[in-house]
Design brief:
The chain has 635 residues and is α/β, with parallel strands linked by helices. It has 3 domains: 169 residues, Galactose-binding domain-like (Jelly Rolls, Sandwich); 90 residues, Sandwich (Immunoglobulin-like); 308 residues, TIM Barrel (Alpha-Beta Barrel), CATH 3.20.20.80. It contains 8 helices and 30 strands. Helix 4 packs parallel to helix 5 and helix 6 runs parallel beside helix 7. The longest helix is centred in the last third of the chain and has 18 residues. The two termini are 28 Å apart. Pfam families: Glyco_hydro_2, Glyco_hydro_2_C, Glyco_hydro_2_N. This is Beta-glucuronidase. One of its GO terms (molecular function) is carbohydrate binding. Keywords: Glycosidase, Hydrolase, Signal.
């Protein structure tokens, strides 16, 4: 099946809300769509960009509401918090670590005097899970969703050359109507607010990514959408440009290769450019053209220019094969997390480079952004280094009974749990993910959820509109979701809506624990069942076992390094016997922090690297397998 339908461009116009079937009895949708943030700010001849990263004043809200308006005055002296970083582990204070509700970041900012003829904005790359931007006493922007950017145009409030007080409020609360979902309870004895949630990673909060002050000309490139294809030896880039302030000026398009040569040009807000003898973006061998769009006025003067790194490649699903540039691609790699000691989910350039170095060392060619969009710097790095990405929304935890937080008979899709308002938030998460990441060559597939209760009543009514929306927004990539073990090929109700079977399975760990012979038989039966049901690729997006680094056993007991190695090897034997397998992504790349509890001792230990990125024995086994597979492909 060819998923790149002609050269149709992405449509980011939000469709009407689909009303679920009556038997779901979901609540009436009330959420208002948030504006989609388009292009990442960049420094150019027409734009300026200033980092606001560093130490900010920090304070907790005095109560569950923010009615005390602390942004109308400087925050009290004392606490300072780094940006970017999660705040939870920064301070030696249990109250801050466990805080549920609003916190405030604050600093003074000066708008450069030379920006008097420009428009200027404050942009936060993320705020987990709700953010507000205040300039002095004015609330200028509000955003729900913890992993995508939002911004405030401050031009009409602060003159160029003036100093202002910037306050960003962040709220970490999760409810059954947020993505991801959760619940807040009140302690009977203490009255303390306690957050619970359905996902197995810690609910780190704060400003975990960069904050920027940037300028753009009053008439400027607001958005670019590109879709690539190949015609013989030539590359095709179909594009659509959106210009702010309704300009009727000329749009000039130039495509520059990596040597700085002009290889194609065009004009207009919509069209297709042809690159003769194109150099393709390929896994492990990235090649990026600079797609440069400029606004030119009637005098022939360039008003604004935006340069978009663009890799020309095609993505298709054909039978059991996942094809990149018409060649079969087999995913090797991991599910990962943005997680490290002290900084939590805070983006860190050193960890970024080191993690990609480890991916290269171990022979991995891909990863999934489990279970939320990663920082844009990560996506840019994957583009430049030829790492393939399955890009996932924050929709994890749509399965009430999964982690034993509720009765095993609890239903997921009900008015009191995952309902129509949750679906509305989920739709917005899909819109924002695609709006932000649509132009990344590394992104080859959208994953719209992780381990939902796809076997339950109401699952199809909930997910069918979401799958339809994803295809409307981007017809150029396959779509998928990560299927949970309880939703077997016999029980699952939604997989026919998607293009690739992505499975998370833990035979030998959560079931058949420690008995790898029984686990091997169960795994093979499951995979063959999926293969018979659908003529399409299967990617194992999670498989693994908790492993304590340094724990050894001559018997290969669970939790030992030997067991992890043996369990992964068993899975690989089965994969090699199933013809429709198109990939294997181990859970997980590195150990990561989870919520406190008796089931986790200082976090999830399924990483093949420790949290500080030291290899366990299994890493060496994976390296031997994956580097050989890569060599066989090249041979």
């Amino acid at each position: 099946m060819r998923l790149l339908v002609g050269l149709s461009l992405l449509s980011l116009i939000s469709p009407s809300i689909c009303v679920p079937a009556a038997n779901l009895r979901l609540r009436t949708e009330t959420q208002v769509e948030q504006p989609l943030i388009k292009l990442k700010p960049q420094q150019s001849s027409s734009r300026e960009l200033l980092s606001l990263d560093g130490l900010w004043k920090f304070a907790l809200a005095s109560g569950p509401n923010d009615t005390t308006t602390p942004w109308t005055a400087p925050l009290p002296k004392g606490l300072e918090c780094p940006v970017p970083a999660s705040y939870n582990d920064i301070f030696v204070d249990r109250e801050i670590h466990d805080h549920v509700g609003w916190v405030y970041y604050q600093r003074d900012v000066i708008v450069p005097k030379g920006w008097s003829q420009e428009r200027y904005l404050v942009r936060a790359e993320s705020a987990t899970h709700k953010g507000r931007i205040y300039v002095n006493d004015h609330l200028l922007a509000e955003h729900v969703g913890g992993y995508t950017p939002f911004e405030a145009d401050i031009t009409d409030y602060i003159a160029a050359g003036e100093k202002f007080r910037l306050t960003i409020a962040v709220n970490n609360e999760l409810t059954h109507e947020t993505i991801p979902p959760g619940e807040i309870s009140i302690g009977k004895a203490t009255g303390k607010r306690v957050q619970t949630y359905h996902h197995d990673f810690y609910n780190y909060a704060g400003l975990a990514r960069s904050v920027w002050l940037y300028s753009v000309p009053r008439q400027h490139i607001q958005d670019i959408t590109v879709v690539t294809d190949v015609a013989g030896a030539d590359g095709l880039i179909s594009y659509q440009i959106k210009v702010a302030n309704g300009t009727t000026e000329q749009i000039k398009i130039e495509v520059i290769d990596e040597d700085g040569n002009l290889v194609a040009n065009s004009s207009g807000v919509k069209g297709t450019v042809r690159i003769p003898s194109v150099k393709l973006w390929q896994p492990g061998a990235a090649y990026l053209y600079q797609f440069q769009a400029s606004v030119v006025n009637s005098k022939g003067e360039t008003v604004d220019t935006y340069s978009l790194a663009t890799g020309v490649r095609t993505v298709k699903v054909s039978g059991h094969q996942f094809l990149i540039n018409d060649k079969p691609f087999y995913f090797t790699g991991f599910g990962k997390h943005e997680d490290s000691a002290v900084r939590g989910k805070g983006h860190d350039q050193a960890y970024l480079v080191h993690d990609f170095q480890l991916l290269n060392w171990i022979g991995a060619n891909s990863f999934r952004t489990s279970h939320y969009p990663y920082a844009e710097e990560v996506m840019d790095f994957a583009d430049r280094h030829g790492i393939v990405v399955i890009d996932e929304t924050p929709a994890v935890g749509l399965n009430i009974a999964l982690l034993g937080l509720s009765d095993s008979d609890a239903k997921t899709f009900t008015p009191e749990a995952i309902n129509n308002n949750t679906q509305a938030a989920h739709k917005q998460a899909i819109r924002e993910l695609i709006s932000r990441d649509k132009n990344h060559a590394s992104v080859v597939m959208w994953s719209i959820a992780n381990e939902p209760a796809s076997h339950e009543d109401g699952a199809r009514e909930y997910f069918e509109p979401l799958a339809k929306l994803t295809r409307q927004l981007d017809a150029s990539r396959p779509i998928t979701f990560a299927n949970v073990g309880m939703a077997t090929y016999k029980e699952d109700r939604i997989s026919d809506l998607f293009d690739v079977s992505c499975l998370n399975r833990y035979f030998g760990w959560y079931s058949e624990t420690g008995d790898l012979e029984e686990a091997e038989a169960a795994l093979e039966e499951e995979l063959l069942g999926w293969e018979k049901k659908f003529d399409r690729p299967i990617v194992m997006t999670e498989y693994g076992a908790d492993t304590i680094a340094g724990l050894h056993s001559v018997f290969g007991f669970p939790w030992s390094e030997e067991f992890q190695t043996q369990m992964l090897a068993m899975y690989h034997r089965v994969f090699d016997r199933v013809g429709s397998m198109a990939g294997e992504q181990v859970w997980a790349f590195a150990d990561f922090q989870t919520n406190l509890g008796i089931q986790r001792v200082d976090g999830n230990k399924k990483g093949v690297f420790t949290r500080d990125r030291k290899p366990k024995a299994a890493a060496h086994g994976l390296r031997a397998r994956w580097t050989k597979m890569a060599g066989d492909i090249l041979a």
